[in-house]
């Protein structure tokens, strides 16, 4: 190990611990918390007030969320929604510290606008993703895209390489295993507390492909809210270390827990940091020797680097993307219709009810609101453009 490597690893694991508590769908990303400190000093005094007056007076529009209201498409509403979109565009450029209430107000307004899929916007955006990143061919490491005898460069520690010899090569699927691509309807399920009592489970289970993050619970009472169907679930190496003790004494518990995911793929960032590799291979070996139905896949580090570059050009300057945004980006390429559930980085709902950080624990988010994660703003923009749909509240009763 390089000098300083140990210190780096220590700092990294401390931050990881912190982040586990912080994020709704975190990636294993030591420097993730930079998100909250990268605040622009730009002086935008007054814009917050302007924002509030977009709908002034705010109370004049009744807070109805039934579809009848949305289908009315009154000319005033359509006009307001158009304005909202352009106002948001310019506001998103100014990253002064807005309060959580400011953002929730924006989302309340967004929610009132009818959502319609915009095929042209979608095709456009998908084409851009395809040309930068090409999830369809290269989102996971396969024998096709990673020939024997080549080297893989790590995503983050990109000066470091790992040679592809027989022993590794055999862990990879021959080609991308998404045989039914393109999928019609996809659900990307984050772990936000907003899903608690959402009754979104039935809707999620109807999707053709369901993505989930970091081995979340999907059994018992949770399934009403989050469904149980799972086609792909990400695994942060830290959960293997912390919750399953590196698959030593907790191996049986691990196998029991993953048996709930049917024949889903378990997706690991094996080649993002060198520290991820051994533990990811351990997961692979454990599944293989236990002859379970789930299969292990590895994120391709090149794909993730290209994706990070793509989002950086859109202003997402975080050190590393969250797995939520990675998966949402993959979904846009793999699916015709994408809906996001459980993405809500706030401490309360639009109705001011407190929400826990995850749907499966009672931890409240940390007090104080630093900066709207830039990633979430991107998701809101995709929603506003009709490229994907974000579910902000409870799912409607059938
Ligand atoms: C939808 O909301 C409107 C306005 O509040 C109300 O008049 C109508 O009855 C509601 N429709 C349904 C189906 O709930
Ligand atoms: C943000 O600002 C940059 C330059 O300041 C401009 O080129 C870009 O169009 C702006 N984006 C939006 C969405 O307004
Ligand atoms: C892979 O890396 C090794 C060691 O750094 C180097 O000798 C070899 O030429 C590389 N192979 C390829 C195909 O780049
Ligand atoms: C499920 O919910 C019921 C009532 O809402 C409760 O009594 C029960 O303990 C819950 N079960 C679990 C496993 O949380
Ligand atoms: C879910 O919401 C209920 C109240 O509606 C609350 O009692 C419960 O603690 C919440 N569960 C979690 C995990 O936050």
UniProtKB/TrEMBL annotation:
It comes from Peromyscus maniculatus bairdii. GO terms for cellular component: Golgi membrane. Residues 1-27 form the signal peptide. The lineage of its organism: Eukaryota, Metazoa, Chordata, Craniata, Vertebrata. GO terms for biological process: blastocyst hatching; carbohydrate biosynthetic process; ganglioside biosynthetic process; N-glycan processing; oligosaccharide metabolic process; protein O-linked glycosylation. Disulfide bonds join 186-335. It is found in: Golgi apparatus membrane. This is ST8 alpha-N-acetyl-neuraminide alpha-2,8-sialyltransferase 6. Belongs to the glycosyltransferase 29 family.
């Amino acid at each position: 190990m390089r000098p300083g490597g140990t210190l780096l690893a220590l700092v990294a694991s401390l931050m990881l611990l912190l982040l586990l508590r912080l994020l709704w769908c975190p990636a294993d990303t030591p420097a993730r918390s930079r998100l909250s400190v990268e605040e622009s000093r730009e002086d935008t005094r007054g814009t917050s007030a302007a924002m509030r007056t977009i709908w002034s007076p705010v109370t004049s529009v009744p807070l109805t969320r039934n579809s009848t209201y949305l289908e009315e498409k009154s000319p005033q509403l359509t006009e307001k929604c158009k304005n909202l979109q352009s106002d948001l565009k310019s506001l998103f450029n100014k990253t002064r510290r807005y309060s959580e209430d400011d953002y929730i107000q924006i989302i309340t307004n967004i929610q009132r606008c009818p959502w319609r899929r915009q095929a042209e916007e979608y095709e456009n955006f998908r084409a851009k993703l395809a040309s930068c990143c090409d999830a369809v061919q290269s989102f996971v490491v396969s024998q096709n895209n990673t020939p024997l005898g080549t080297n893989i460069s790590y995503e983050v520690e990109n000066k470091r390489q790992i040679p592809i010899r027989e022993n590794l090569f055999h862990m990879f699927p021959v080609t991308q295993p998404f045989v039914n691509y393109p999928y019609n309807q996809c659900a990307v399920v984050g772990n936000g507390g907003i899903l608690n009592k959402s009754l979104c489970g039935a809707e999620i289970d109807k999707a053709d492909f369901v993505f989930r993050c970091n081995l979340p619970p999907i059994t018992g009472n949770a399934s009403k809210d989050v469904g149980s169907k799972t086609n792909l679930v990400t695994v942060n190496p830290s959960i293997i270390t912390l919750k399953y003790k590196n698959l030593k004494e907790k191996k049986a518990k691990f196998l029991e827990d993953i048996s709930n995911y049917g024949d889903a793929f378990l997706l690991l960032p094996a080649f993002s940091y060198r520290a991820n590799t051994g533990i990811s291979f351990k997961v692979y070996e454990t599944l293989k020797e236990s002859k379970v139905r789930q299969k292990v896949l590895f994120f391709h580090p090149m794909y993730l680097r290209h994706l990070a570059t793509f989002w950086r050009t859109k202003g997402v300057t975080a050190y590393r993307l969250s797995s939520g945004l990675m998966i949402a980006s993959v979904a846009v390429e793999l699916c015709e219709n994408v809906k996001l559930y459980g993405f809500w980085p706030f401490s309360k709902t639009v109705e001011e009810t407190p929400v826990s950080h995850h749907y499966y624990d009672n931890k409240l988010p940390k007090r104080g609101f630093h900066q709207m994660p830039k990633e979430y703003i991107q998701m809101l923009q995709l929603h506003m453009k009709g490229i994907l749909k974000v579910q902000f509240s409870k799912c409607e009763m059938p």
